[in-house]
Batch of 3 targets.
Target 1
Amino acid sequence: MARQALSREEVLDTAAALVRAHGPDGLTMRGLAAALGTAVTSIYWHVGNRESLLDALAARTVTDLGTIRPDGATPAERIVSVAHALRRSLRERPHLVAMVHERGLTERMFLPAQRALVHEAHAAGLRGERAAELVRAVQFHVVGHVLVERNRERSPAQSPAETDLWTAEPAGPTDPDPELVRALAAPIDTEAVFLTAVRALVTGLLGRDGPRLPAPGA
């Protein structure tokens, strides 16, 4: 017997869980109804057809990504915290993020993080082009890192031997560094790599003095 009590939020929660597990193509109205223990007509009443449901999921994903809150004692620490939170949010819902992108809502999705980054850039004394440069560099770093992580996870496991990582040709160093080779051959802690890179990026952008370097090809 179909259940009687059903809310729009419950429909969206269950639909989001199905998308996370199987991707947008794995979300069908019949499958959603089965997961909820209700009739398909009941779902239509709460969220409309499948396209309306996907639109609602995309809109809610945009809202969820707007809850990023900076944390830390300094602008640099807070900027790193925003980057870390944004990476975590993107990693937790890749299929939903892809759905947001397909519906042309990418810029809206990143707007809350951009606002937080702008606020911290101003707190650090950056204005104009330098503030914009920091915001964009951090955002691109986060998105690029997440894409690399996702591609690595989808690829076959690769474990190069230590000997594969050390060669004198064509431009290998003359001094062997066994500890370096072992470290490079070990499994990658992607979160540690992310934090190292984003901290270096933020420190460099906040601490840079003097005239800006010309753009490549300028």
Target 2
Amino acid sequence: MTNKKLNIKDKYRLLTRDLDWEFSYTDRKAAFPLEEFEGIKITDWSKWEDPFRLTMDAYWKYQAEKEKKLYAIFDVFAQNNGHLNVSDPRYVNAIKLFLTGITPQEYQAYQGFAHLGRQYGGVGARVACQMQSIDELRHVQTQVHAMSHYNKFFDGFKEWTHMQDKVWYLSVPKSFFNDARSAGPFEFLVAISFSFEYVLTNLLFVPFMSGAAYNGDMATVTFGFSAQSDEARHMTLGLEVIKFLLEQHEDNLPIIQKWIDKWFWRGSRLLTIVAMMMDYMLPNKVMSWQEAWETYFEEAGGSLFKDLARYGIKMPEYAELIKREKEHVSHQAWWTFYTYGQVAGFHTWIPTDDELDWLSEKYPNTFDKYYRPRYEYARKLEQEGKRFYNGTLPMLCTTCQIPLLFTDMDDPSLTSHRSSEYEGDHYHFCSDGCQHIFEDEPEKYVQSWLPVHQIYQGNCGGPGLEEILSEYYRFSLGEDNLDMVNSPDEQRWKKWKGVA
């Protein structure tokens, strides 16, 4: 007799669903103790659907084909000194920000999904988490390889793994994933797979990869294309997660809504660095942050939440506030990094006249009124040899860990500041959203590791700023930080290009 060849459906069932087993020596609930930890009710795991029907053997074959193409282009980029084809040496600082701020979080996502793969009673969910975990690890590796070429020629790349745990502004993305990974298994899925991967990921990857293409960085844009099919699968998983949980039991709805509200707000705060990158760090600009937000959230996200309305899901809380902030956050973030350029791991600069005009065109209601005058004044100080650096340490938000740089939308001349008291201590926040998240789970956020607090307490080396930067952060002073103008990066670039 000859064995009958299995069709795709049967093969998928055997290589996923039929990997499960019944427990003969222990209670199934004891094997998955976190499944009921958050109050989520699962009535039938068999209803979990994987839209891609992807088996592990097909996954490895598919990814191997992508790897061959990806590394061939990396090799060509390196052999042809591809770094000389970028639009402007300032652009490389956007890559430094991506490597130090985003790539380590891909590794946290890998760890989070690997952990999740053990926590679910449903085998379909376990297999999905396993595959996404492998994807995230692959993204870390390909991002590091794509950007490693720049480490040979530019400053600011060599200590990126060390910086992740030490540098003040990197506590923002790190705390986001620490928060998600220390939540329960279903909250992690809502936080990462839905709120970030499905709702907000286009606001991260599309601007970075389009920015790379517009600025001649073919190594980074090639990584983006290679990762895009993975991201499509992750987004589909995120939507499947929400629909599956909402269809399982009506009691899940208020829990899911609270998580969506929380993680939409935390994710939008995290994307402040992307807004800054788009408006200020790309010499050849793709679109403004305001345009990106309108395209990828207000239009696409608006349609999504209309679709989810039949389950009872509402638009995330504070979405209207973010809609108002889209005209401000990039300018406020870049101004903060410019005035703290001595403690940043990349170079900063005042936009050129053409760039200021572009910002005026893209933000006609706010830029000339609130931001252009301060940049023009800062340039005047630079020309007089009085370049301004802020010599104080800023107050940080206990929840998102961003300095209190945002302004009140009813009066953008005032800093947005909220505070709460818990067990006799005062905690400070950048917004109503962060304050609300804290007050819902204060025991979690009182443990926040806030860099400014730690510096003042003497836990970050010291006692002076130079010791903190050189010994604790491991910055090469004058090379990794300060202005782009007259930096070693700029001087090398001029030498390569034969510019006097």
Target 3
Amino acid sequence: MTIGKGPAQIAGAALVVLFLAGCDGGESVERGNLNYENYTAQQIFERGEYDLSRNKPKLAAQSFAEVERLYPYSGFAKRAVIMQAFSHHRDRNYEESRAAAQRYLDFYPADEDAAYAQYLLALSYYDQIDEVGRDQQLTFEALQALREVIERYPESEYATSARLKFDLAYDHLASKEMEVGRYYLKRDNFAAAANRFRVVVEDFQTTTHTAEALHRLVEAYLSLGLVDEARTAGAILGHNFRGTEWYEQSYALLTGQGHTLEAAGDGWLQEIYRQTVLGRWL
């Protein structure tokens, strides 16, 4: 049995069609002449979804914002906030995406989409991470926001992606330190170079840059005449990264000058050696 639509349903459907068709002709002015007050929350929301399907996220964000403005207490208003965050992110308007995501978290912290809002907020920083040579403040912001996803929503579907991106952003920061350290090393500013490589060894031990940082410390410390420190760096490198090219280069450099790759002295690397090689944390 087919159930026929009533007059109100037919009129509502026709209004949606007119809304969609009418907007198509005026997108060049971004709907500046459109009177949203004439449409329901659902109709405006569906307009936003329609714009997203046509890859017009800027216009979609405008519609979702109107839902929030005109119908703040409707069921669509909450959904419209998260959809604004998504649409702005698609439009690469990261600042507005962050604002909408944060607004969602402020208003609906216990909602089922709160994890996604936090993830979008983190992405708004992460997707702005520039090449290594730029300022890394956004990387720090991304790490903090991604950590929030991981710690507050560990069972969510976004936690795994957040962990992966956290590791990549963390590695990115280590890359920055390595780049600056190499810059100083090439200009024979060995003390400044050693300080940068030390940061990598102490603070970024789980990244892919640790082996090279240890080798660069061997180079820098030998150039400074700090043989014990160079030998200790070589010893850590030999224990943890023996199969790498960096170990081979450090081995050749140290033995070529008559030194062994053994821990010596009482510098900061001795503590690293005790922890990573001997397993002594106290």
